[in-house]
Amino acid sequence: MDYQQLIEEVYREVQAENLKGKVADYIPEIATVDPNQFGIALVDLKGNLYGVGDYLTPFSIQSISKVHTLTMVFHRFNSKLWSRVNVEPSGNPFNSIAQLEYENGIPRNPFINAGALVITDALCSKFENPLEQISAFINEIAGCDCVRINQAVMNSEKNNAARNTALAYFLKSYNNFENSIEEVLDVYFSHCAMEMSCVELAKTFSFLANDGYSIYANREILSESHARRVNALMLTCGFYDEAGEFAYKVGLPGKSGVGGGVAAVMPHKFSIAVWSPELNEKGNSVKSIRALELLTDKLAFSLF
Amino acid sequence: MDYQQLIEEVYREVQAENLKGKVADYIPEIATVDPNQFGIALVDLKGNLYGVGDYLTPFSIQSISKVHTLTMVFHRFNSKLWSRVNVEPSGNPFNSIAQLEYENGIPRNPFINAGALVITDALCSKFENPLEQISAFINEIAGCDCVRINQAVMNSEKNNAARNTALAYFLKSYNNFENSIEEVLDVYFSHCAMEMSCVELAKTFSFLANDGYSIYANREILSESHARRVNALMLTCGFYDEAGEFAYKVGLPGKSGVGGGVAAVMPHKFSIAVWSPELNEKGNSVKSIRALELLTDKLAFSLF
Amino acid sequence: MDYQQLIEEVYREVQAENLKGKVADYIPEIATVDPNQFGIALVDLKGNLYGVGDYLTPFSIQSISKVHTLTMVFHRFNSKLWSRVNVEPSGNPFNSIAQLEYENGIPRNPFINAGALVITDALCSKFENPLEQISAFINEIAGCDCVRINQAVMNSEKNNAARNTALAYFLKSYNNFENSIEEVLDVYFSHCAMEMSCVELAKTFSFLANDGYSIYANREILSESHARRVNALMLTCGFYDEAGEFAYKVGLPGKSGVGGGVAAVMPHKFSIAVWSPELNEKGNSVKSIRALELLTDKLAFSLF
Amino acid sequence: MDYQQLIEEVYREVQAENLKGKVADYIPEIATVDPNQFGIALVDLKGNLYGVGDYLTPFSIQSISKVHTLTMVFHRFNSKLWSRVNVEPSGNPFNSIAQLEYENGIPRNPFINAGALVITDALCSKFENPLEQISAFINEIAGCDCVRINQAVMNSEKNNAARNTALAYFLKSYNNFENSIEEVLDVYFSHCAMEMSCVELAKTFSFLANDGYSIYANREILSESHARRVNALMLTCGFYDEAGEFAYKVGLPGKSGVGGGVAAVMPHKFSIAVWSPELNEKGNSVKSIRALELLTDKLAFSLF
């Protein structure tokens, strides 16, 4: 399989379809990004890189960082964290609070906002300088000192924090929050405000295609069994209320962010990152999702 | 890999754990089944059969039959049926009606009761004798004349049909029902009341592990792309409100029934059916799920 | 207080405001009624009648009949019926099924559809010919042989019965239904299809303004304490999801119907019926509600 | 009517029934109150006072203060506040956040917590020293310098504020909050932590029985029409998710608090306050509610 040819073909076909969406507008720093950008980067298990379009341009990874933070505390997942966050698809928008009430303060999964806040809270319990640790971790698995936090985006999110702050206090009212809410939200908004290019992002997902072992960090990041479980979680819960449709059409474990990025893995083959800012009404990138659909069609394989 | 040795090991270990659950009690015919029965059958892509325990004993396949009926109308799925039933996990019990109201009469997926009723309704629109067609189809892909409808179970379900009848009328109130409600429910209860042994059931799922081609029917049942999509649907929606946990722990596409059966596939490797009547509180067989979890652990592979 | 002058004043002012709404369109027989009709009838405790506009024209009383049927089984309310239907405002549309699921098949109150079906079911358990009994009862308290069932409306409702049938089966699935669903729905649609003029309707509510005693039937219909409780129920639950607003603006116990009628009582003073077919988006008559608001303003008294 | 004899009779009968409930335990300062206390005070429109039991002992009025704060901004209600808070019964627990999400940040009514926070927020916008103004207002309508804030209760509530803080941030996320959340919560917890005896509390509700005119303040507190509307709101929404039952059994406008107090009015007759700390599962005082039920039975009149 010639991956470079493949992603170029996919790139051209998606561009030709002239798909339209809407750039996320809740913070000015993301709203003003050029909507026409579109990039794809693929990394195979030997570290060969393939890229097309704007695959070297950094963008805000937003919720995709929830996979990184989950990974950092995953070893705790099989014991203590289990009781604090569930692993079921939510069937609701990512920032819904109603379901959290019906289920007594236990978020449905670690990728909806409430669940990700619990994960970041667990990181704040574990590390003295959680943000430094997160950056160091992501740089390590990306194999470069490339990750940076966009402070303007971070400040902007902080100034629009009412909904997430409500979720945090609500979790606290169910005793499902350990640290200062302000501290945790700072860390949360910071890791969501990280910027990376497609190629860097694809590298950070490489270990998930490789049974947990990162060829960039030269170490086992997760045990094989844990890596599989993170993939399972991404497949069932990685695309908010559109997870079923992504599994149905694309069939790869992946995670999207409102910055327009999507990272995904084909286990035992490659990891891939696609980016284009315009979103559909569920908050997932129109072109990125279409690109992954075409790619699995052309490869004639998916998980299934 | 010696599959026979593998499933025998799994069988012994599960038996040793002495897990307890509760046999479904809503109809007498199922409630009186011997709760200690437990069988496993595995079929590889060449047709080699492996079995252990009560793998030759027929049991009520119940909701597992929803995979068979979905398959029969799946080619319509990409056009007309799409607008009648969704492909998202529900995040709610299998017989919930509340979500159906919030989402204006479009069931979340074809495996919750409301969605399965829409599928059976579509079958009734397509065939003059839908029940005969369903039986013929299942016999064909099982490679034998083995399927039979347990009339006592069927009648019992009909006499406890209030909830499903409410779902059907509710669908009709949203114009999402084409045929006579009584007729469709008759067909629905009949296919849920079908009996098969583990080995027969595993054979009927073989085409889903084989890119859509059945070695028993000697024909393509679904296109490769459609077979993958049915698998994706089973993975995200096959276990009611426990789908995420099954994907997380087991990582195989599968479908459970309240009779205690579970059928699953490892794409490009094998199909498998496990049966034991005692259920957990979500309605899935305690031993069957544990067996599949152990099996994927031992095989050290799953989808991911 | 000159009631005739009062209601004429109210009538003129409402007409001058030129309020617009939308005639109920779910059945042809109601949809084709002349939308400009508007009538008011008031009956004091001595039986003096006051009327203006189309107060002698019969119209479909629809849900207002739920007050009559509730009255007929109210003596059972303090014992057996209590466990089958609640007395709380619903906070949901009148035909919602979601809340019924969350509250395990016990309708929130006897005026939402699910609750009214339980009441009609109780009537069917009590009487051999429930419909005859209902007609006889309403004629008795109206003091005339005036009530008739519009068979075309009744048939039309029966042909659009999916939603209510779903509610009935759903109640049955919680063992909260005693009789044949078809029989109960027949009685239900029949009493909703009754026609009366404003003046006849106002007379049927007279006993509720008179501590339970009907001057037309010359007997106590309800004990004083029970009459008070029916009034309390109308105040908190008589206008679907607009009950709070009606209590807030008008302050009288009353009941509306999708035919555009509203019947209300000023305890110890009078009963009143207003009718105009155009409805607001909550399903209550625009002009009828405005008329009652003006009337209580002018009278400078309400319950409070 | 000899009110003194009446309330003594009621007092004795309730005591004889030996009703049991559970003192609110979410804050230590309220949890340690003597659960056997029970007092009734009634004030007629001429200012005659009647009392029995612990009617002179101060207790924490808690949510009853929401009637006082609502009154202070009620003149704004018919214009700006209308769009910020609704007047419908909620059909949900007092601190539910789910409904607030379904209804886009507009609380159902001013007596559930979310609605009361909007009212306190409006007070903070109106006054420089809102807390002083609230105290001064309540003292004025009580006709004495008697109201005091229990600082220990207030601090305790502040330390258990996660749920209410979540509600406030959630309102803010819908732009339905004007001031600093910390400031508004401070005022909110302070007015909830006010202490009064039954007789003082009954006096503060006197104007609501008197068409808006306070004989203690010697002025019109609310216009007649506004006083009626506050009463209507109390009747439909004053007892959380038990409002219907209170209207049904008692038939008076009133408001309860988790301290065990209930204040109510019989328009044009009297105001009354009852207090006993043990609560039913809906959070309303067992003895207080029973006392008011007996009282209206004996008086043989209610609103209706």
Automatic annotation (TrEMBL), chains A, B, C, D:
The keyword Acyltransferase does not apply. This is Glutaminase. InterPro entries: Beta-lactam/transpept-like (IPR012338), Glutaminase (IPR015868). Keywords: Acetylation, Hydrolase. Gene3D superfamilies: DD-peptidase/beta-lactamase superfamily. Homotetramer. Belongs to the glutaminase family. Its EC number is 3.5.1.2. GO terms for molecular function: glutaminase activity. It catalyses: L-glutamine + H2O = L-glutamate + NH4(+). Substrate binds at S63, N113, E157, N164, Y188, Y240, V258. PANTHER family: GLUTAMINASE. One of its GO terms (biological process) is L-glutamine catabolic process. It comes from Algoriphagus halophilus. Pfam families: Glutaminase.
